[in-house]
Structure formats: structure tokens, C-alpha cells
Automatic annotation (TrEMBL):
Name recorded for this polypeptide: Glycosyltransferase 2-like domain-containing protein
TM stretches of this protein: 46-65, 71-95, 396-416, 436-455
Membrane topology label: Multi-pass membrane protein
Organism: Cladonia borealis
InterPro entries: Glyco_trans_2-like, Glycosyltr_2/OpgH_subfam, Nucleotide-diphossugar_trans
SUPFAM superfamilies the record matches: Nucleotide-diphospho-sugar transferases
Keywords recorded for this protein, A-Z: Glycosyltransferase, Membrane, Transferase, Transmembrane, Transmembrane helix
GO cellular component, one term: membrane
Pfam families xrefs: Glyco_trans_2_3
Length: 503
């Protein structure tokens, strides 16, 4: 067999002869194709890892050969950029205090009237609530979430329809029969199975082709427990502000005690949904639909649809709406409780999908920062600056954070510190200007975490908040590495959808 292979390459008929050799060796052409497909899939899967690994190794090696003057320039650039990021973050945190105060006052007013809202029930908008599920991953929880939505959501039943949109590559019984039987008993519940669907975007786009009527569409992932009054708060926002097109609510992690990892994600989500998103809306005049617990005006979402080629189709739809001049707001009283991954592999798959998706939308929509606005577009300086920071600076920050880490690592290799004091000097204070950048950045970080602590959810403990504060630099490095991985996946055109397992 080996001799046959050697002769084939010398004769210039390698491909034909190779097939004959494998056929004569007992391997069928189908098995031969499967083997090469598996090898190709393996290479495609691991190429991003090799690219990111080479990036870190190469960067450290470069810094070990740089002179002191070049190192000083790099050091200043990295610290200045980190200072900018820390300053923007703390400014968002301070501006989030206003929406937080307003949300609490609104709750107090409604509570004082025995949970009577301003709008009479008969005047409320009709809501189509969509629960989007991939049954193989969510078959263990879906009945619980459906029953919860039917029984606990405080909204007039004649003004809401709860729709289950699901796809599955195989029949899952008796679950599917149970869902159909439940729909026959509940007039405001409908089950829609989407054939040949491969993603959440496919499910939603199929629904948009149906003539269901209604004023508002709200979307929830299958692991969510919407707050009983969350839907009512969102509709009141639409009723009070006629120019609002999308209301995005606050997502809270409720399984924070399931593992150490889920407790950290719970803190992270409080920082994102209770601090960053409201603060950005106040400072930069735009919000984002984040995929779940979001409420859209029906005609707008049906017109935009979801782009299934983008892994974060929710962010893409938000930016396309902003390009039309639509207004997206965040409301802290529109609360929904969701599950966080409880182990590293599940979180890694989820975050890599998000990272690559953000890369895709940044490449597609970064022009919104500078392109001339069309008629009716609301893009002022604040929004343009915010979009530039969100889409371009955020993507570049992955390199700034990781390069700072590589620079420090090169110091360890070239001038290994002999004491803790010398280590601290090398990491933080090798140049006079570093002291100011470092101290101000730390103050910004502490201020952001203190504000997050003040408005944390009931599922975040003081202990979790303390641990998160201590590991925050490592968290930033972890996020930056995932961002690089997302870039590498985009380079190799990785397109596999890895849904998150729900338990």
C-alpha cells in the first residue's frame, strides 16, 4: 500500500491512485469522504485556538526585544486607553443612578395605590408574548416556564397571547402532545412548531409571516421567568411615551447559588443590566435589545425581522432599528429572571458565540458612527460617540487589555522581580505617569462596583460582590481573550450554532 502511494505521487496521478488504494484496502468512498470531513472539521474547530495562542506568544516575544523607549510608549498607550474605558464605565454608573431612582419612585406610587397602574385595563395594548425554545436543550424546563407564564403574569388575559415558538430536530414525546393539549385548554396560549428551523432567528422569522394581530411583540428565551408585573410596566412605558419603539428590561440571574461561576455571572448581569445599559441610555441616548425580555412595536419588528447569518441577531436588529431613527429605552422595572451557565464549558460556548456575534455586528454597523443620518434619524453627537465606543473602541479594547497583559508578562521573563514590592513597581509604577493613570482607574473601578453593590438584585450576596471585585482584572482579561477568539472565528468563517444547555 505504501509503495502504491509513493508511485502515485511520482506519476502525477496521486488523487486517482489514492482512491484506488483506499478502495483496495477495504475503505469505501463514503468512509474516505467522512474521514476527510472529520479532519477538516477538526482543523476548522481548532484554528481559532491556534491563532489566539500564537498571538499571545508572539506579543510577549516582541516585548522582550523592545528597548526602554519603545516600552514606555506602549505603556503610556495601554494605560491611557484603560483609563478611558474605566472613565466611561464609571460615568455610565453615575448616570444610572437617575433611572434607578425614577424606577423606585414609580414602584412606590403603584404600591401606594394597591398595584393600580395609570392605564385602565381595557385601554392597554395587545401583547403577543413569544417564548422561543430549542426543545432538545430545554425540554426539561419548558412546561414549568409555560405554566408560570399562564398563571403568574399579571396582565388582562384578553389583552395578551402567549406563544411558544419551538424547533426540534426530532420528535420529543410525550412533551409535544402535552403542549398541544395545554393549548386546547387555554384560549390565550398557542403552540407553534417551526419545521426546518435551525436557530432562534428562524423561529422568529417564521412567526413574523403569520397574521397574528397585536400591538406589541415581546420576546423571551425559554429559561426566563418574567416578573408578574414586568409586562405591565413595559406597556405603561409605551403608553406614556408614544415615541418609544423598543423597551428592553432588566435580566436577573436567579440560580446564583448553583455554582461559584453562576454567582459571578449574577454580579456581572447586575453590572450590565442595572448599571451599564441604563447609564448608556442616559449618556448616549440609545439602548439595545439584548435578545430576551425585550418589547417591540409589532409593525417595526415584523419589518426588520432577524438576520440568521448574525450570531447575535438581537444586537443586529437593535442597530438596524437605530439606523431608522427608532428609540430604544431600558426600563429597570421590566424584570425577568433567567438561568446562568453553571460550568466553564457551557459559559465558554455561550460567550464565544456572543463574542463572534459582536464582531459581526461591529463590522456591519460601525459606519453608523460617521455616516450621514437619513431623514428622521436621531443620531446626534452623543449617540454617534456612543456607537463609536460600543462598536469600534470595544473591539479594539480586546487588544489593548491583552497587550497590557503581554507587556507585563514580558517584564517577568526579562527582569523577574525579586520581591513583592519590585513586582508591584514593575506591574503598576515603572513610569511616573503610571501612578496617576493607575490610581484614577482604580478609583473609577471601585466607584462602579460600589454603585453596582447599591442596586444589586436579591440574588447577589455581599460575598459574591466582594469576590467579583477582587477578580475583576482577571475577568477583564478573560473577556478580552474571548473577544480575540471571536475575531479568530470570524477570520476562519466559523458558523456553527452552539445552543446553551438549560437545566
Amino acid at each position: 500500500m505504501i509503495a502504491g502511494l509513493r508511485s502515485s505521487f511520482t506519476s502525477g496521478e496521486s488523487v486517482i491512485h489514492l482512491r484506488k488504494v483506499f478502495r483496495n484496502s477495504g475503505l469505501r468512498s463514503g468512509a474516505f469522504s467522512d474521514l476527510f470531513r472529520q479532519i477538516g472539521g477538526f482543523i476548522h474547530e481548532w484554528t481559532p485556538f491556534l491563532l489566539v495562542t500564537c498571538y499571545f506568544v508572539f506579543s510577549v516575544c516582541v516585548y522582550t526585544f523592545c528597548g526602554d523607549a519603545v516600552i514606555a510608549i506602549f505603556w503610556f498607550i495601554f494605560l491611557a486607553s484603560n483609563f478611558y474605558i474605566a472613565g466611561t464605565t464609571v460615568l455610565e454608573a453615575f448616570l444610572s443612578l437617575g433611572p434607578t431612582r425614577d424606577a423606585r419612585k414609580a414602584v412606590q406610587r403603584v404600591q401606594s395605590r394597591d398595584w393600580t397602574f395609570p392605564t385602565p385595563n381595557d385601554d392597554l395594548l395587545f401583547v403577543n408574548l413569544l417564548i422561543v425554545a430549542y426543545l432538545p436543550n430545554e425540554q426539561d424546563i419548558i412546561m414549568d416556564r409555560i405554566n408560570y407564564a399562564l398563571d403568574e403574569i399579571k396582565y388582562p388575559s384578553h389583552k395578551i397571547r402567549i406563544n411558544l415558538l419551538y424547533n426540534t430536530p426530532k420528535s420529543i414525546e410525550p412533551l409535544e402532545t402535552e403542549l398541544i393539549e395545554l393549548a386546547s385548554k387555554k384560549s390565550h396560549f398557542r403552540v407553534i412548531k417551526v419545521e426546518n428551523s435551525k436557530s432562534k432567528a428562524d423561529n422568529l422569522n417564521y412567526y413574523f409571516t403569520l397574521n397574528t394581530g397585536g400591538d406589541i411583540i415581546c420576546i423571551f428565551d425559554a429559561d426566563h421567568y418574567p416578573h408578574p408585573y414586568g409586562c405591565r410596566w413595559a406597556i405603561e412605558r409605551f403608553m406614556q411615551e408614544k415615541n418609544v419603539d423598543v423597551v428592553q428590561g432588566r435580566c436577573v440571574i436567579f440560580n446564583s447559588k448553583a455554582s461559584w461561576l453562576s454567582s459571578m455571572i449574577a454580579v456581572e448581569f447586575d453590572k450590565i443590566y442595572a448599571v451599564s445599559h441604563p447609564g448608556r441610555t442616559a449618556m448616549m441616548e440609545f439602548g439595545l435589545f439584548t435578545g430576551s425580555n425585550g418589547f417591540w412595536r409589532d409593525h417595526l419588528l415584523r419589518d426588520l425581522k432577524m438576520d440568521g447569518s448574525i450570531l447575535t441577531e438581537d444586537i443586529d436588529s437593535s442597530l438596524r432599528a437605530l439606523a431608522r431613527g427608532c428609540k430604544i429605552v431600558h426600563d429597570l422595572n421590566v424584570i425577568s429572571y433567567e438561568l446562568a451557565p453553571t460550568d466553564i464549558p457551557a459559559m465558554w460556548k455561550q460567550r464565544l458565540r456572543w463574542a463572534q456575534g459582536w464582531t459581526q455586528v461591529s463590522m456591519r454597523h460601525c459606519f453608523l458612527s460617521w455616516k450621514k443620518a437619513c431623514e428622521g434619524d436621531r443620531r446626534g453627537f452623543g449617540m454617534r460617540f456612543g456607537l463609536l465606543s460600543l462598536l469600534l473602541v470595544r473591539e479594539l479594547s480586546y487588544y489593548l487589555v491583552t497587550q497590557y497583559f503581554c507587556l507585563i508578562l514580558s517584564f517577568v521573563f526579562t527582569q523577574f522581580p525579586k520581591s513583592p514590592r519590585s513586582l508591584a513597581t514593575f506591574i503598576f509604577f515603572p513610569y511616573p505617569v503610571s501612578q496617576w493613570f493607575f490610581i484614577i482607574s482604580v478609583i473609577c473601578l471601585l466607584a462602579t462596583l460600589i454603585i453596582t453593590f447599591r442596586i444589586r438584585s436579591e440574588f447577589v450576596s455581599k460575598r459574591s460582590m466582594t469576590i467579583f471585585s477582587v477578580i475583576y482584572p482577571a475577568y477583564l482579561l478573560f473577556n478580552a481573550t474571548q473577544g480575540l477568539y471571536g475575531h479568530a472565528r470570524q477570520i476562519v468563517r466559523y458558523s456553527r450554532w452552539n445552543p446553551t444547555k438549560r437545566t
